[in-house]
Amino acid sequence: MKSKEKISGHCRQLRLGAIGSQVESIADNASAEGISYLEFAEKLLDIEIQHRNLKDMERKTKEARLPITHNLQEYDCSLVEGMPASRLEQLKELTWLDQKFNLIVLGPNGIGKSFLSAGLCHHALKNGYRAYFRAMDEIMTMLRTRDISKPAMADYKRLQKAHLVVIDDIMMIDIARNEANAFFHFINMLHEKTSFIITTNKSPKEWAETIGDEVITTAILDRILYRCEILKLNGESFRLKNRKTIFSSID
């Protein structure tokens, strides 16, 4: 008992939480299996590394701010025109991310643009990339408040180091000229260093109507479209197709 308490104390001091909580059961299993001291040490370290990797992934997922629906295994390509399974598999290889390519996911509301982009963001996270998911209004709020808000500045610095930034529902909100200028500088800062996935129901030609400044719009598009694939999706709205009701059906 004293040995267990001493080992637990050492683990707390060394911040080996997984080993400290499981060392007794691991030792019992090792004794039953008759493994060597080196194999026992390897098991201990494997458990600690797995625990830390899990915690690290949980932290990264929280910082990414992924929506609830982000598991690509649940994405049904048969329900969407423009995203065959072969193309999705190619996107999952992430060569476009290594090449600093951008993706624009274009299509009507409700067909899974956010689902697809969040899924690719999560897939990138699992493969060791720094990836973040932000709605357009979150990006603009961050840019407006970064000089007066520590959380906004922290997020700004976090996105500066990203391999991938998803901007969801771009051009869904009207942007004032000064805000459009700030958004341009944000895109320009990350240009050729970070890949973007942008979801939108408006074609790039329509973006000027939201921004209200053709020069700034052209400058933004020049950077986004320089190395970019436009994925045009179509189909029936998932939300309307699977609409819920609080009422029971009445004959």
From TrEMBL:
InterPro entries tied to this protein: AAA+_ATPase, DNAC/IstB-like, IstB, IstB_ATP-bd, P-loop_NTPase
Q: Which GO terms describe its biological process?
A: DNA replication
CDD domains from the UniProt entry: AAA
Q: Which residues form a coiled coil?
A: none
Pfam families cross-referenced by the UniProt entry: IstB_IS21
Q: Which UniProt keywords apply?
A: ATP-binding, Nucleotide-binding
* UniProt key word RNA-binding: no
Enumerate the spans annotated as AAA+ ATPase domain. 99-231
Identify a single GO molecular function assigned to this protein. ATP binding
Record family assignment: Belongs to the IS21/IS1162 putative ATP-binding protein family.
Q: What is this protein called?
A: DNA replication protein DnaC
Q: Name its species.
A: Chitinophaga sancti
Starting at the broadest rank, the lineage of the source organism is: Bacteria, Pseudomonadati, Bacteroidota, Chitinophagia, Chitinophagales
